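Interim report, section 4.2 (structural modelling).
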Amino acid sequence: MNYPSKVLERAVEEISHLPGIGKRTALRLVLHMLNRPVSQTENLANALNHLVQDIQYCEKCHTISDAHICQICANPLRDSSVICVVEDVRDVMAIENTGQFKGVYHVLGGRISPMDGIGPGQLQIESLLKRIENESVGELIFALSSTMEGDTTAFYLYKVLKDFNVNFSTIARGIGVGDELEYADEATLVRSIQNRIPYVESTLKG
Amino acid sequence: MNYPSKVLERAVEEISHLPGIGKRTALRLVLHMLNRPVSQTENLANALNHLVQDIQYCEKCHTISDAHICQICANPLRDSSVICVVEDVRDVMAIENTGQFKGVYHVLGGRISPMDGIGPGQLQIESLLKRIENESVGELIFALSSTMEGDTTAFYLYKVLKDFNVNFSTIARGIGVGDELEYADEATLVRSIQNRIPYVESTLKG
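Predicted structure of the assembly:
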């Protein structure tokens, strides 16, 4: 595309580096910015600068935080003996939104994926090991993606940590609440039958 | 959603003000920014600041430009007696990309749309009037959206300008090149029949 202005082109170029945003969408966004008050776009630019300059990660669980220790790790009411291992901060937010989990987290920062060149060394596994060594951890819950990479990551962690006196669990896989059986994929259906639970227990939990 | 960090929340908030980007997508973009080199996001922020601070509009045709007069208006090889009236800079770019139009443009900056509170006063109509008064304009091509608002805008312009010694034309509406007739909508099909052109002329142009 030929842009009538270098300033315009550069803005489109930078925006289109973001995932899922092509040149056309970027141009649409840029024109929107030109049609709204200048201050709004300045606020956006400021927020992005602040983001990359001021963001911190919790020293304990590695979630995004405004302090050295995140609000969850710093909360004495949370049960620090139960650690939920997740891939990224979105998973923490999703679980926190349910309001039902009272333990703490450990954010790996991704999952083992040889295809993407991500090995165990790039994930926060060393620090998880240290937490289990130094804190009195009773249970480790794997809340990882139900994909090859997620399963590989869980298996790797289990192998590394299995000699510690810790119970390992993984979140249940099965038919989603409200989902119809006939639309479930085969693998999920198989898992939901294999991992069936006593009826009475299930209804009490629901 | 509960965000674990104010810095994160503010960035998500600002990004989600953009059209077509919800909170979830904004969060995905923000996490992407945190996983790439800081300089890339700083470049983006800089580009946005430059955009809103340094952008200029051509004094003649009102397209986005890096100078007072845009490259097209300043080009002596362009035929300034033929003005193509468009809604915004994307239309200019689309037509320029064809490389077939040798005239100049006039960017209205939108279309008359009472529903969105946009009247003729908010569009660059006054300056189009001045161009026709002062320059020797032979033809005015309406290249506006084929919508109620686009048609209204063309009709309004025609009413305002019809006493000048200028030929008015509008871009052809019809079945797109490569499109199948059976999938065309009714209105387009009707227009394509009503505005049929002699066969020989059409094949020569093609």
